């Protein structure tokens, strides 16, 4: 890769109107291990692959609860993610204190979007080197958002970011019509299958490297909505789910040639 | 771009020997890559429309809105770098709010365009920032009614000082377009983004700038705006898109002076069903 | 005579004596609002099975002077809630403007959501919008903060609407940040004169849940009449609002009907009475 004159900082446009520093920050997201998110009519799910630096070290957490109703999955610089996560926690808490309700997920996501945009327009700042999937439930039901270092935030039906995430996205695109009506368990399984698509050969989901996060808002018969707070599941809590997707080939596209391509 | 490599384009706020600020010109390039946005100022309102390129099948259809409300009577649409557009809108909302704080009355479309033009221009002045990578179209309907002061509790004196000139009208539909340089003009019909040339050609065919003011009604303009976005879309090159549009009328019209009260967001396949779509809209407008 | 420019236009010390600057209070604590100036009197409200009824008269008094007689003290918020203000009128105007901004802010988020109203009930207010309970929480934080700044907003406020479980909601907050909720509520003189009457009809939440809209409106109108009889800072023109799931019906120019002042003859103890 060659340097050019326009990639030194985030306040210089290239002649094509691009900002290379922001594009490079997006590359940092692809260095992180893969995370997948899916939303149905009743639940929002995040699943993630955790990495350990070496055999004897612990695994880096990928899923973080923000408030009762929201959680995030991160890919990229963990320390940048912590800055954003702390900010989101504070905003949610403040909103809860002032209005006595869950902060709407879109409002929350747009706040970090605005925060990140500032870093792309001022000299001496750098873009955040992390991408997020934000899953949560509010008065309007479950939501899944993607956040990029550019400050771009978009609501998705399902999405995957991180290393080799293209394969997971391909799985999600193939199954996108199924997600809306999935129940909690089906949705988690779809997430794990998408995750498996992105694994390197010889690697598989284990209780050590897999995290699952769920939030839900299920409508009861009497019209009231029962909120399932966002919760992260690790270790033995994910065993059953991993086993349930261990051998199935339901994930169309699994094992096909495209699965071996490198992350673009 | 013969001047690339001379070094005058490496930082914002630097003039080249022939008097250009290249960084601003590059920012315009970012705009020219974005989906087409248009605005139409018609007889009884303003229409804003945008072509949203669908970058991924995984996007939630219709969920990611690009036209934003700034105040009850003001809307903004933009082409270019979307996070920059969000920033622009945040600022526009702050301006509208501070105007209300100071003057106890809504900001006029012209004043908002002026404030935001100034804000954009400030980002061309310093090496420490970059220009906005957007061109924004601001549409609004300044009330033609006799507006009470915000927070007014009684009816006030029925006569006396502060009286109005009989027969004098004020307010109405307004449309402005603000460029990365901070330059802004008022428009009868405005277009920016990738398909601006085609869109402009279509806009110029409409009767918008006649001496007696535009004859196009809001209802017609809504249809024209939808059509123009489809015309401006390059089927061969571009991916699928969603059309998003909104419109605003005066207090006696279908939106009762409030923007965003009616909004439309349709996927690309609606192209074939264009006729049906139009009828749906008519129903809405007769509300 | 003193011809120095500093003395031009000033009262002459040799005629009027030296200027007494003592009232300027050079020392002492900084003070903000010590008392309300132009005031509105009672606001009353009662829950019924499908919503809440609220009323307040249209008078703004300057001390004992009936200064403004067309002041609207009930304010709808987002067409789903009503806020009623007793106390200082300029503070009410400040709060009204503030709530207006809050409503505009709410619209930003609300209009950008694809499912703005519930699928099964087209009349339901848009999901995710601030409801009366959220609004009351917000106002209580605002009022409490201002009181802790020793710069209170001199109001007693009633908030009516619905809570997040879609049940009728009624609560109050005052200049001290005190919050209270009850099936019926009244501020100012209404707390003494109207509340006992309303409690006859809605002593408990269960009672209120049986009350019909017509009954609730009748009780409130009756209370407004009693308040006009006995509260010297009240007026016979008033506003009444009914909040239901369908929205807010606000009528701002009601007139007290069928007044009977016969009881006044029997009142003794003050005024120009000879017996």
Automatic annotation (TrEMBL), chain A:
The residues forming the signal peptide are none
Q: Which example biological process does GO assign this protein?
A: ubiquitin-dependent protein catabolic process
For this record, the Gene Ontology CC terms, alphabetical, are: cytoplasm; nucleus; proteasome core complex, alpha-subunit complex
Q: In which compartments does the protein localize? A: Cytoplasm; Nucleus
Q: Which Gene3D superfamilies does this entry report, sorted A to Z? A: Glutamine Phosphoribosylpyrophosphate, subunit 1, domain 1 (3.60.20.10)
Q: Which SMART domains match?
A: Proteasome_A_N
Pfam families for this protein: Proteasome, Proteasome_A_N
Which residues are in coiled coils?
Answer: none
Tell me the protein family, please: Belongs to the peptidase T1A family.
What is the name of the protein in this document?
Answer: Proteasome subunit alpha type
> Which organism is this protein's natural source?
Staphylotrichum longicolle
Automatic annotation (TrEMBL), chain B:
Extent of Basic and acidic residues compositional bias: 259-270
What keywords does the record list, in alphabetical order?
Cytoplasm, Nucleus, Proteasome
List where in the cell it is found: Cytoplasm; Nucleus
Which GO biological process categories is it annotated with? ubiquitin-dependent protein catabolic process
Residues covered by the Proteasome alpha-type subunits domain: 8-30
- Specify residue ranges for compositional bias: Acidic residues: 271-280
Identify the Pfam families for this entry: Proteasome, Proteasome_A_N
Q: Where is this region: Disordered?
A: 258-287
Q: Which GO terms describe its cellular component?
A: cytoplasm; nucleus; proteasome core complex, alpha-subunit complex
Where is the major localization of this protein? Answer: cytoplasm
Q: How does it assemble?
A: The 26S proteasome consists of a 20S proteasome core and two 19S regulatory subunits.
- Entry's family note: Belongs to the peptidase T1A family.
Q: What is this protein called?
A: Proteasome subunit alpha type
Which lineage? Eukaryota, Fungi, Dikarya, Ascomycota, Pezizomycotina
From TrEMBL, chain C:
The entry's keywords: Cytoplasm, Nucleus, Proteasome
Q: Where are the transmembrane segments?
A: none
Supply the Pfam families for this chain: Proteasome (PF00227)
Subcellular location, principal? cytoplasm
List the InterPro entries.
Answer: Ntn_hydrolases_N (IPR029055), Proteasome_beta4 (IPR016295), Proteasome_bsu_CS (IPR016050), Proteasome_sua/b (IPR001353), Proteasome_suB-type (IPR023333)
Q: What biological processes does GO assign it?
A: proteolysis involved in protein catabolic process
- Segments carrying the region annotation (Disordered) are 108-129
Q: Where in the cell is it found?
A: Cytoplasm; Nucleus
State the GO CC annotations.
cytoplasm; nucleus; proteasome core complex, beta-subunit complex
Which PROSITE patterns does the record cross-reference, listed alphabetically?
Answer: PROTEASOME_BETA_1, PROTEASOME_BETA_2
Origin superkingdom: Eukaryota
Q: Which family would the database say this protein is a member of?
A: Belongs to the peptidase T1B family.
Stated role:
Non-catalytic component of the proteasome.
Q: What is the protein named? A: Proteasome subunit beta
């Amino acid at each position: 890769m060659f340097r050019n004159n326009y990639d030194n900082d985030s306040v210089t446009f290239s002649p094509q109107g691009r900002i290379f520093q922001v594009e490079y920050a997006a590359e940092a997201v692809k260095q992180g291990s893969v995370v997948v998110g899916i939303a149905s009519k009743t639940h929002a799910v995040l699943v993630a692959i955790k990495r350990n630096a070496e055999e004897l070290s612990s695994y880096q957490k990928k899923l973080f609860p923000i408030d009762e109703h929201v959680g995030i999955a991160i890919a990229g610089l963990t320390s940048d993610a912590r800055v954003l996560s702390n900010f989101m926690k504070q905003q949610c808490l403040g909103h809860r204190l002032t209005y006595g309700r869950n902060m709407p997920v879109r409002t929350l996501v747009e706040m970090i979007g605005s925060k990140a945009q500032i870093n792309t327009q001022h000299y001496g700042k750098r873009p955040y080197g992390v991408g997020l999937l934000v899953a949560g439930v509010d008065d309007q039901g479950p939501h899944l958002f993607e956040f990029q270092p550019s400050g771009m935030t978009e609501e998705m039906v399902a999405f995957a970011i991180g290393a080799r995430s293209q394969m997971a996205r391909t799985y999600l695109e193939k199954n996108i019509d199924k997600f809306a009506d999935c129940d909690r368990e089906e949705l988690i399984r779809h997430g794990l299958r998408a995750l498996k698509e992105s694994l390197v050969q010889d690697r598989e989901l284990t209780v050590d490297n897999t995290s699952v996060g769920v939030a839900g808002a299920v409508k009861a018969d009497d019209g009231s909505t029962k909120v399932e707070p966002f919760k992260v599941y690790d270790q033995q809590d994910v065993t059953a789910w991993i086993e349930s997707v261990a051998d199935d080939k339901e994930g169309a596209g699994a094992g096909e040639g495209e699965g071996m391509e490198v992350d673009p | 771009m013969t001047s690339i490599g001379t070094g005058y384009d490496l930082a914002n706020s630097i003039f080249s020997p022939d008097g250009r600020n290249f960084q601003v010109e590059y920012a315009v390039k970012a705009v020219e890559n974005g989906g087409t946005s248009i605005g139409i100022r018609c007889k009884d309102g303003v229409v804003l429309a945008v072509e949203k390129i669908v970058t991924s099948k995984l996007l939630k259809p219709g969920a990611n809105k690009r036209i934003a409300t700034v105040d009850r009577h003001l809307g903004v649409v933009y082409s270019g770098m979307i996070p920059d557009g969000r920033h622009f809108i945040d600022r526009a909302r702050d301006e509208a709010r501070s105007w209300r704080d100071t003057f106890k009355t809504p900001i006029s479309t012209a004043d908002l365009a002026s404030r935001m033009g100034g804000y954009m221009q400030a980002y061309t002045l310093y090496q420490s920032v970059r220009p906005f990578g957007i061109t924004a179209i601001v549409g609004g309907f300044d009330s033609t009614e006799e507006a009470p002061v915000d927070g007014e509790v009684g009816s006030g004196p029925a006569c006396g000082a502060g009286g109005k000139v009989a027969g004098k009208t004020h307010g109405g539909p307004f449309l402005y377009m603000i460029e990365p340089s901070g330059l802004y003009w008022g428009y009868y019909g405005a277009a920016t983004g990738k398909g601006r040339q085609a869109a402009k050609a279509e806009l110029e065919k409409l009767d918008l700038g006649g001496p007696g003011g535009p004859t196009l009604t809001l209802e017609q303009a809504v249809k024209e705006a939808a059509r123009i976005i489809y015309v401006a879309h390059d089927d061969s090159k571009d991916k699928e898109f969603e059309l998003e549009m909104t419109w605003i009328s005066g207090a006696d019209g279908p939106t009762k002076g409030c923007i965003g009260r009616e909004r439309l967001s349709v996927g690309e396949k609606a192209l074939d069903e264009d006729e049906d779509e139009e009828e749906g809209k008519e129903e809405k407008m007769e509300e | 005579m003193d011809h120095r420019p500093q003395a031009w236009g000033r009262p002459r010390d040799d005629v009027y004596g030296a200027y007494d600057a003592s009232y300027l209070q050079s020392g002492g604590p900084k003070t903000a609002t010590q008392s309300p100036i132009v005031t509105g009197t009672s606001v009353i409200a009662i829950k019924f099975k499908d919503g809440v009824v609220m009323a307040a008269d249209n008078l703004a008094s300057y001390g004992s002077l009936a200064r403004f007689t067309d002041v609207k003290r009930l304010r709808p918020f987002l067409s789903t809630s009503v806020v009623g203000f007793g106390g200082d009128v300029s503070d009410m105007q400040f709060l009204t403007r503030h709530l207006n901004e809050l409503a505009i802010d709410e619209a930003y988020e609300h209009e950008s959501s694809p499912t703005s109203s519930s699928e099964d009930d087209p009349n339901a207010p848009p999901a995710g919008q601030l409801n009366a309970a959220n609004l009351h929480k917000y106002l209580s934080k605002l009022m409490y903060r201002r009181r802790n700044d020793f710069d209170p907003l001199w109001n007693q406020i009633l908030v009516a609407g619905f809570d997040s479980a879609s049940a009728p909601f009624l609560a109050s907050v005052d200049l001290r940040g005190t919050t209270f909720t009850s099936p019926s509520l009244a501020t100012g003189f209404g707390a003494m004169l109207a509340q006992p009457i309303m409690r006859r009809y809605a002593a408990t939440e269960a009672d209120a849940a049986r009350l019909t809209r017509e009954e609730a409106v009748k009780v409130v109108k009756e209370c407004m009449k009693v308040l006009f009889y006995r509260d010297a800072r009240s007026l016979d023109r008033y506003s009444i609002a009914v909040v239901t799931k369908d929205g807010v019906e606000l009528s701002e120019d009601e007139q007290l009907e069928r007044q009977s002042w016969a009881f006044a003859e029997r009142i003794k103890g003050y005024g120009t009475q000879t017996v």
